Automatic annotation (TrEMBL), chain A:
Annotated InterPro entries: BP-dep_ABC_trans_perm, MetI-like, MetI-like_sf
Transmembrane region(s): 12-36, 72-96, 108-129, 141-163, 184-209, 240-261
Subcellular location: Cell membrane
Gene3D superfamilies hit by this protein: MetI-like
Family annotation (Pfam families): BPD_transp_1
Family: Belongs to the binding-protein-dependent transport system permease family.
Protein name (record): Carbohydrate ABC transporter permease
GO process annotations (BP): transmembrane transport
Keyword Metal-binding annotated: no
Automatic annotation (TrEMBL), chain B:
Domain called ABC transmembrane type-1: residue spans: 69-280
Protein name: Sugar ABC transporter permease
Cellular compartment(s): Cell membrane
Membrane protein topology class: Multi-pass membrane protein
Entry's Gene Ontology BP terms: transmembrane transport
Length: 276, 290
């Protein structure tokens, strides 16, 4: 039964919630606006900025000057590539832990989680030297490997919590009907697991896209994704507000959109299933 | 019951993930540990000598270490205070019925999806810049002197930026927890004459405690490793005023080429993170039993 709420109260809550929501979102809104202004207008006072002319100039400039497309594709390749590899490794692992649990399954899960607790800086030096010695610095392939490994525990965990929700009786029924392991996976499990796999994929792409430790340490230009490209604006170039804003807007737009689709999965994925 | 056949298959399916993580865990960490006992400078290759605990001694005894350690703690605690208290209040507000719930939710969550380098640069240039930033414009409009946030209050400014990124996370998780609150229980309590405050203290708070703990622990893990925000805003400065442990290790090993000292710092960071991790693992482990 829905509780009755007075309209006055609802109005007050609406006003408060919208103001706070606007305030929190404001920095993002502001760079979206600044991206469509000229450099000269972008540094004026906020009111002058709002009423100045709109232009696409900064977007043209960013694309023309800085190989924006290459960094964008690096981000796509790194995030999607590492996610796909992680899924290929994690799906079988999570499947077997969820449906053929052994005595050690719980310990194994906890151990996998513990690898995620290791701070990246603890292995910065050896990773940097290994990358240098194997010629992997500033290469996409090396970074895909690292991103796969750092997110693998989260992927296994998320998939595990989703697979756990598939009732085991269905599998037993399929087995009784004589289904082989292969057909069991192909025709019974897969259709039920697709939503969970899709959410895991989405969240992992977001995490990999925004990863800003290894991408900053191990790339410089050729393999640099958008995190590194934006960081390059931190020097004097950052004073070109309109260009920085245009570049930033393009860098965060795809993920903002993906993120809005995956709010619920975010909770489950980042709390390792502890909050659903 | 699983058959022996499917058990073998299951083990085979599990092994790639386990092997990879095992390698990832053992090889680099083992190397860090090994380097931490060497005098090893990248500018003097081939001169490595075993020095025992010297690296640890020098790393801990540099003045920068203690300020980095306290900066790390201040950063973690500061962000936690803002995000947990703000998150609880915001979640309680968003849990009320109002018009446009879906849209406001999206607005509030958005900062979490902004990559760290973007949010740091946007705050640094568009808001905190003492000449053209929005805060400076506001100060001038009010007839005040603009404040140079990043040089006079670097750590507080970084706390603000990082808190902006993590407030959505805390809010989202606490909101999810609130929405799983038993409505019937609430209504029963209301019928029995429990006021809003009593219901909040005796029903809502106990229900939220677990989620708050999860938020604190997970955020701590991530906040101990804040790096990009410091790199693009202050470079750890002025001096070491905004250097945290992660940044100090980076500076020592990749800017000063002191592999041995940096490795010792890395091991110290791992130990620090593990203290938190143990508590977090217990919480999650308990949940696994249920």
């Amino acid at each position: 039964m829905a509780r009755k709420v007075s309209n006055t109260r609802k109005t007050v809550v609406t006003l408060a919630a919208w103001s706070i929501g606007f305030l929190i979102f404001f920095p993002i809104l502001w760079i979206i606006i600044l991206g469509f202004k000229s450099e000269g207008d972008a540094i004026k006072t906020p009111l002058q900025v709002l009423f100045s002319d709109w232009t696409l100039q900064s977007y043209h400039d960013v694309q023309a000057r800085s190989n924006y497309a290459r960094h964008f594709w690096n981000s796509v390749i790194l995030s999607v590539g590492s996610t796909m590899i992680a899924l290929a490794i994690a799906i079988p692992a999570a499947w077997s832990m969820a449906f053929v649990p052994g005595k050690r399954t719980k310990d194994l899960l906890m151990w996998m989680l513990s690898t995620k607790m290791m701070p990246a800086v603890g292995v910065l030096v050896p990773m940097y030297l290994l990358f240098r010695d194997f010629g992997l610095l500033d290469s996409r392939i090396g970074l895909v490997g690292v991103l796969t490994l750092i997110n693998l525990p989260i992927v296994v965990w998320m998939l595990y919590t989703y697979f756990k929700e598939i009732p085991g009786e269905i599998l037993e029924a399929a087995r009784m009907d004589g289904a082989s392991l292969r057909s069991e996976i192909l025709y019974v499990l897969t259709p039920m697991a697709v939503p969970g796999i899709a959410s895991t994929m989405l969240l992992n792409i977001i995490l990999a896209w925004n990863e800003a430790f290894w991408t900053l340490q191990l790339t410089t230009s050729q393999a640099a994704p958008l995190t590194q490209f934006i960081a390059s604006y931190s020097s004097p170039e950052g004073l070109f507000y309109a260009k920085l804003s245009a570049a930033s807007t393009m860098a965060i737009a795809p993920i903002l959109i993906l993120g809005w689709f995956s709010q619920k999965q975010l909770v489950r994925g980042l709390t390792f299933g502890a909050v659903k | 019951m699983a058959t022996a056949h499917s058990r073998t298959a299951a083990r085979l399916m599990l092994s790639p993930a386990v092997l990879l993580l095992l390698l990832w865990m053992i090889v680099p960490l083992g190397m860090t540990l090994y380097f931490s006992f060497l005098r090893y400078n990248l500018l003097m290759p081939g001169m490595e000598t075993f020095v025992g605990f010297d690296n640890y001694y020098y790393f801990v005894n540099q003045p920068a270490f203690w300020s980095a350690l306290s900066n790390t703690l201040v950063l973690v605690l500061g962000v936690l205070c803002i995000t947990v208290i703000g998150g609880i209040l915001l979640a309680l507000l968003l849990d009320q019925p109002f018009w446009g719930q879906g849209i406001v939710r999206v607005l509030v969550i958005a900062p979490f999806f902004v990559m760290p380098t973007v949010s740091a640069l946007v705050w640094k240039n568009m808001f905190m810049n003492p000449v053209n930033g929005m805060f400076a414009h506001a100060a001038k409009a009010l007839g005040l002197q603009p404040f140079d946030f990043l040089s006079h209050a670097p750590l507080a400014s970084i706390i603000l930026i990082v808190a902006w990124q993590w407030l959505p996370f805390a809010t989202l998780i606490l909101l999810t927890a609130l929405q799983s609150l038993d409505r019937e229980q609430q209504e029963a309590a209301e019928m029995d004459g429990a006021g809003w405050f009593q219901r909040f203290i005796y029903l809502t708070v106990p229900h939220l405690t677990r989620s708050i703990t999860v938020v604190i622990l997970i955020q701590t893990i991530f906040l101990l490793s804040v790096f990009a925000e410091i790199l693009v805003t202050t470079n750890g400065g002025p001096g070491t005023a905004s250097t945290n442990l992660t940044y100090l290790v980076y500076a020592q090993s990749l800017l000063n080429y002191d592999v041995g000292g940096g490795s010792a710092g890395g091991i110290i960071a791992v130990i620090l993170a593990n203290i938190v991790a143990i508590f977090l693992m217990r919480m999650i482990g308990k949940n696994l039993e249920a």
